[in-house]
Amino acid sequence: MPSVLPRRQGIKPTIEALCQRLGSQQLLHSNLTASTKDKNMKLLPFLGLVGLASSLASNPISFENNLNYQSPSRRHENLGINIPLVFRRSLKRGAVPYKPSELQFTHGVASGDPYPDSVILWTRVAPSAASDKSNVTVEGTVDLYNHETEQYIKADANPICADWKVWEAKSDGSTVAKGTAYTTSDIDFTIKVEAKGLKPFTVYNYQFTICNSNFTSPVGRTKTSPSPADNLDVIQLAVFSCSNYPNGYFNAYGNAARKDNHDYVIHLGDYIYEGNQGGKRAHAPAKTIFTLYEYRTRHGQYRTDPDLLLLAQNSPWIATWDDHEVSNNGYRDGSSALNNTEASFRADGRMISVDQRKMNAVRAYFEWMPIRQVDLDDNLRVWRSFKLGNLVDLIILDTRNYDRSITSLGWNDAYIELIRNEASRSLMGSRQENWFYRQLSESAGRNATWRIIGSQVIFSGAEGAGTDTWGGYLANRNRTLKHLYDENIGNNIFLAGDSHQNWVADVAWVGKRNYSSSTGVGAIGVEFAGTAVSSNGRAGPISSANSAAKTRVDQNAVLQWQEGYYRGYFLLSATREKITTQFFGSPTVSTRNAWELPLANFTVLSGQNSLARPVAGAKVEAGFANGGTTTGTNLTLNTQTGKWQVIGFDNMYIS
Ligand SMILES: [Fe+2]
User: Which of 403, 452, 479, 482 lies 20 to 30 Å from 597, alpha-carbon distance?
Assistant: First the structure.
C-alpha cells in the first residue's frame, strides 16, 4: 500500500516518487516545473515505460484533457488535483479496471460557455450514481482536496476512460472534434472537456462512449457562440433562477426544452439549495451541506430531475451562482447561517469554516456544471462575458460570493441599514466592479447593439428597500448608473433572479436624473427580474398576489409590472430593432407536468432605454402592469402535446 504522502506536495516530488517506484531515476528531468503545459511535456518520456508497467492504457495527457482535474483557478494550482499522483495510483499492482458493463452515464450530458470556436462538454461516468465514498476523506478539518489516505486509494485505483466526439447537427455525421478523457473519484467521476476547432453559431451534437465499448451516453446538442463581428438577426435566451428541488418539479426547464425557442440557457443562480428540506423530493443528503461530499451529492441529486436533464442535454448553458450554491445570504466572509466566528464555526458549521465550506461548494460547482475556468487570479471568479456577434454583449456578474461587503444576515439588519450608503461598500469587489464598468464601455465602444447584464440580485430598486440586493450597496449602484449616464451608454438590459417573483422595471437614476414613470423618458435601460423555477414566491390566492403587485407598482416609480404567484422563466429575444421578452408561468410545481401559462410580454425599442408603452400592451395574465389590466384567463399550453386549454391548479408547491 503506498504510504501517505506529505501535505500539499508539489508536482516534482510526485514525479520523483513515480520514478523511484519504477526504478527509473535516469528518466527524471532536472528542471520539472508545475505548469500544466510543462507537466505534459515532462511526463511524455514516461509513456513508453507505462506501457511496460501496466496494461492500463491511461496517460497523463488524457487526465489533463479533463478540465475538472485542474484547479478552479489557473493561478492556484494547489486547489487542483495532483494528476501525476492519480496516474501513479493507477499503476498499482493487482488493480482490476472496471468493465464497461460495470459503468454507467449516471447524470446525462451537458454543455456550456459557448465560444465561437469551442464549447464545454460535460458528463459523469461512474460505477454508481452516488458520489464516491472516498469523498469522506475530505470531511471535517482535513486538508482540502488531500485524498491520500489508505481508504481512498483502496476505493478507486482505476481511472475510467471515455472517448467523446462532436459532429455538426446538419451534416452526414462526420466527426469534427474528438478526444479521450479519464476520470476518477478524485473529481466525483465527472468529465469536462473543451471541444475545439468548431465553427461559430453552429449547432453540434456530441456523445461520450466508454473506451473500447459500445456503451454510450445520450446524444447531446449544443451551439457555439457567434464571432464578435458577426451580423446576426436575432439571439434568443431562456433565463432561469432559483430551482429548489424539494419545493417542486423543474417544469420550467422542461417547457423551455420542449418549445426549443432559445439559443442559450442563462441560469442566474440558486441552481441548488444548501438546506435540509423534507417531503417527497427531500434533499439528499438529509442535512444542511458543508463538506465536499455533501455538495457533490446535492449537485448529483438536482441533476436527476428529468426536466433539468432534458434542458441540459439540448442546450448550452451559461451559469453563474447566487447565494444558495454556497449558503443563504452569502457574502465574502460568511452567510446568514454561518458567521465567521469561533462560536458559529463550532455551533453552526460542524467545525467547518466559512472559507473551507465555500471552497467545497466551489469545487463541486466546477465539477458538476459545464462552466469554463475563467482566466483568473483566484478560484472564485465566475464573472465573465460573451460577445454574441455585434448584437449582444452578455456580461455575467457574481454579485454574491466573490468579494461582496457584508450583507443583512438576520441579526445585523439595523446595522446594514446604517451603512448601506457608504461609498466603500461594494456588491462585487473593486476588481470585478472596475472590470464591469470597463466591459460596459468596451461594449459601447465596439458598437454592440445591446448590453445584457446577468446579475443575481435586483438592480433597479424595483423591489423596494431590501438590503440583500443592490439596494444594500447604494454607492456601487450609483457608480454603475453614473458610469452609464456619464458615458452615454444606452441599450442596457439587466437580468436578475434571487427574489422568486417577477419584476419588470425601467432602470433610472431617480432623484439624480429626470425620469417619467408614465413615458419612461430619462431611463437608461430596463430590468427583467424573473421568478423562480420552483422556489417559494408569494403565497396564493392569485387575487391577493395581484393586489400586492398593484400596491408595489403604485408605490414604485420605476416598477412597471410585478407578479409574485407563478413559478417559471422568461424568454428574451434580441434583434437590431428591439428586445422582446415573454414571461411564462408554471401553474403548479407540485407535480411534474408540461403546463405553461403566458403571463406577460414586453418590448424595448433600440435607443429608447425604457419599456415600450403601453407596458405589456396594457394586458397581462397575472400580477399588475402600470396602466394595464389583469385578466386571469388560465389559458394554458401543454408543451408536450401543443394543445391549449383553460386550466387552473389550487396548489403550487409540493406540500
Ligand atoms: Fe433563490
Answer: 452
Say how many Å lie between the first and final Cα of the chain, rounded.
Answer: 51
Q: Which residues contact residue 551 at a Cβ distance below 8 angstroms, ignoring those fewer than 6 apart?
A: none
Domain count for the chain: 1
Mean pLDDT, all residues of the chain: 86
Q: Are strands 384-388 and 104-112 parallel, antiparallel or unpaired?
A: unpaired
Does residue 132 fall inside a structural domain?
Answer: yes
Tell how far the Cα of 316 is from the centroid of ligand 1, in angstroms: 22
Does 428 fall in a domain? no
- Distance from the alpha carbon of residue 500 to the mean position of ligand 1, in angstroms: 6
Angle at 326 between CA 320 and CA 327, to 5 degrees: 125
pLDDT above 70 covers what percent of the chain? Answer: 84
Residues written for the chain: 655
Q: With H, G, I as helix, E, B as strand and everything else as coil, classify residue 419.
A: helix
Query: Would you report the helix, strand and coil content of the chain in percent, each value rounded to 5?
Result: 25, 25, 50
Residue 566 Cα to ligand 1 midpoint, Å, equals 14
Give the range among 36-45, 119-128, 241-250 with minimum mean pLDDT.
Answer: 36-45
**DSSP state letter for 26:** G
Ligand 1 centroid – CA 322 distance (Å):
8
Instruction: Take residue 442 and report the three cell numbers written for it.
Output: 468596451
Beta-carbon contacts of 558 under 8 Å, excluding residues fewer than 6 positions away, are 460, 461, 462, 505, 506, 507, 508, 510, 515, 517, 523
604-644: pLDDT as tens digits:
999 999 999 999 999 999 999 999 999 999 999 999 999 99
Give the distance (Å) from ligand 1 centre to CA of residue 324.
7
Domain assignment present for 615: no
Strands 629-630 and 644-646: unpaired
**CA quadruple 331, 337, 343, 348: dihedral sign:** negative
CB-CB contact of 235 with 449 (8 Å): no
Beta strands 525-529 and 492-496 are parallel
Q: For residue 510, what is the DSSP state?
A: B
In-domain check, residue 184: yes
CA of 327 to the centre of ligand 1 (A): 11
| Residue 628, helix vs strand vs coil | coil
Mean of the pLDDT values across residues 638-655?
A: 95
**CA 321 – CA 193 distance, rounded (Å):** 21
**3-class secondary-structure state, position 532:** coil
Q: What pLDDT digit, counting tens, does each position of 338-376 carry? A: 999 999 999 999 999 998 898 889 889 999 999 987 644
**What is the per-residue pLDDT for 495?**
98
**Distance from the alpha carbon of residue 24 to the mean position of ligand 1, in angstroms:** 55
Contact status, residue 184 vs residue 86, Cβ threshold 8 Å? yes
Alpha helices in 156-219 (DSSP H): none
**Cα(425) to centroid of ligand 1, in Å?**
23
- Residue 107 maps to which CATH number? 2.60.40.380
Instruction: Residue 195: give the domain boundaries.
Output: 100-223
**What Å distances lie between residue 294 and 47, 140, 301, CA to CA?**
36, 11, 10
Q: How confident is the model at residue 156 (pLDDT cuts 50, 70, 90)?
A: low
Provide the 10 A C-beta neighbour count for residue 123: 28
Mean pLDDT confidence for 4-12:
28
Residue 176 three-state SS: strand
Cα(171) to ligand 1 centroid in Å equals 41
Helix axes 83-90 and 36-43, enclosed angle (nearest 10): 30
254 C-alpha vs ligand 1 centroid, how far in Å?
19
Q: How far does residue 567's CA lie from ligand 1's centre (Å)? A: 12
